[in-house]
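cache lookup: miss for this entity combination. No prior model stored, computing from scratch. Input as submitted by user K.M.:
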Amino acid sequence: MSPPVAVIAPLLVVLFTAILTAVAHRSLRVQRALSVLGGVAYLGAVAYLFARVKAEGTLVYQLADWRAPYGVTIVADDLSVFMLAFGSFVGVAALAFAVVYVDEVGQRVSFHPLYHFMLVGVTGSFLTGDIFNLFVWFEVMLMSSYVLVVFYSGAEHTRAALQYVVLNLVGSALMLVAIGGLYATVGTLNMADMARRLADPAAFGITTLAPVLGLSVVLFVVFALKAGIVPFHWWVPAAYRAAPAPVSAALAGVVKKVGIYAIIRLYFTVFAPADLGELALPGFSGSGPLAYFGPVLLVMAIASILLGGVAAVNRDDIDDLLAYSSVGQVGFIVLPLALAAFGIVAGVDAPAPYGDVAGVSGLAVLGVTAALVYSLNHGLAKSALFLASGAIYDATGTSRLDRLGGLAERAPVLSGGFFVAAIGLVGIPPLIGFFGKFLVFDAAAVAGSELALGGALAGAILTITYVTRAWNRGFWGTPTEVVDATRTNRTQVAVVVVLAIAVVGVGVAFDPVLEAAIEGAAAALDTQGYVDAVNPDTTTSATSGGGHA
Amino acid sequence: MTEVVLAAVLGFLFAVGTFLVLRRDVVRVVWGVSIISQAANVYLITMSSLGGAAVPFVSAGGADAPATVDPLVQALVLTAIVIGFGTTAFALVLTYRTYEEHGTIDMLELADGTEEAETNGAVATDGGADE
């Protein structure tokens, strides 16, 4: 069978774009054209992959034809393509914005190659089926993002980047430690092979799974750091404020979701079937990693929602407000994941269509679906808001709320885009945000968790508060001096409007999106299907080395 | 015996790295980070069945292959070392740039700078096209 090239097409397209834009640095015009064309081709490749996966099911590409588990496997299943689809859309929208936003010198020097390399890392992380390969893609993504955060190299930017770099370097070392430990314990790096071995350790000569819980906790810290979940959120505001607006949009809209994706993929697909025995920890009951991560995720999610929301309420700077808001919104993404973990541990069912997926708890499907839909919502709305904030900064020279005011009068279209994306965050029907919040509340109700319901409710109220405050102070009222002289860039406004239309459009045509999200959730929870698709060689792998003899 | 020695060395390296990361001087922090990542590499090497284990995939005709150290982790470590080179170089350049911008590489003085800037209301929030 010929390997499905569709699987690596997005990776190749964006990688070649990155290289070409680096080569073409002499002519800004050529470089920009290549960058945008490459972005469009990338979208096309992702759309093609999406269609292929929907038509044929999970597609697997064995790099250099080395069969799993020996080679690196690239896997595109319903979960990967869902994340990839909205990630690429947001990424390319922010790229189009950057072309007219980032100054010419900056674009010529390094912006385009770096941005595309970041997309390479994101794409690779979504598609890889190998845990060490995931580390490498993370590094590709991070290294580009280091430079993009410090892009303007001013006082603020170097300080924020220093924090961001040191933190992520320590995170990378931790990730290596966790991966090495998992390899020594389980004897493989391939995710499908690992899931298979964890489900039935005795068949592969694995004597103990006890270290897996601790190692998965170390790994979880790294992913939580990437996703900016409390208590690993403190790098978020400084980094988002320092990065150029389109980069902040991509960081909040796409790069954060890589952390979320990694949590879903590893903890719900790979680690979930492991039987670790009854947890000997006070306050936890049940067996398996999810019995541990369920309560932990719940506490972290509610802490994120509350801390992010409260901190966002009294910010005086739009970018700052958006950064804290994204800490809170990530809480909304993680909250249903915690409930999904409860669903798996307790076997809670949910009504159709979530309960229709055979073999898994309905609540788990509902929870992961909610997380995916909310990720989509946050990706679209938050990147639209960051880009709107960038356009405002470009037009007025400030993003401080006390210096702004009356923007709705002077820049009505831009303000309209901001407004739509903002109420998308709040969750007004028929916008996508409504369905995201609705699913989160639905999951909390099905789980019967008052704590989750209360936390989500408090978070929703806080969201309304800070969005209203930003709108009242920045957009209503009489125009201030800086606002009076406003001249918005048409292309910048157009990109914001496109994202705002997506926020509305995805909400209006929600049925296919929900269907794709449910399929993604089902794929995330279907460990056996994932293993069968990748098909790690069963005849010889049982003797593979790596374990401490 | 080897494993005990290596475990002790690793613990020491991680401890030194952590200690340096918590220093005020940015250069020491970068040193600390690079020691931690090197310690992680050494740790990876120790994951390779130091006493020797079955060869991963020499089955046909290789039944009498001697027990070897798992070569896979060495490939992993090579990758990690290369990544470590890049990031350490970048972190050092960033340190220099930080020194140029702030005139100091003391963490506390850098943090003080933030507070002053915020109270003056003159935080350079986001670079626009005009920078």
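stored under new cache key. Residues 540-549 of chain A have pLDDT under 50 and may be disordered.
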